[in-house]
Amino acid sequence: MQLNTTQFLATPCDDEEDDMATLCCISDKGQMFLLTRYPDEDTVDLTLDDEPSTLDGLKVTLGATHLVIEVAPGDRDALKGDAQLHITHATPASDLPEVLLTLRNLLDGTGELISEV
């Protein structure tokens, strides 16, 4: 599955939402992508459009112009049958440290993060 977006919106720890970490974007075709996790939970919620899924064991790779999310074979329904979600982005380099921190908070203890930035 492939999405294109201009920029990610990242919140590593939202005080008003019980310290929830959130990474989201809207694709150039109007599709919504959302990853969320509360610090006391062992799973990550992934939402594509209006279809939420609760996942663990995600593998996420962040690059300067791409984000790749890989799910376990049993979780492919979250990506409409695909094993990977590839998001091409144009997030400014100055915003990537916050995206990386958010991903660390999202995946700590529940997934794998590979940083190429």
How would you portray this structure in words?
The structure is a single chain. With 117 residues, the chain is mainly beta. The chain has one domain (2-115). It has one helix at 96-107; strands at 2-4, 9-14, 20-26, 32-37, 44-48, 51-55, 58-62, 66-70, 84-88, 111-115. The longest helix is centred in the C-terminal third of the chain and has 12 residues, at 96-107. The radius of gyration is 13 Å and the shape is globular. The chain starts with a strand and ends with a strand.
List the main descriptive attributes of the protein structure presented here.
117 residues, five-stranded mixed β-sheet, five-stranded antiparallel β-sheet, 1 helix, 44% strand
In summary, what is this structure?
The protein has 117 residues and is mainly beta.
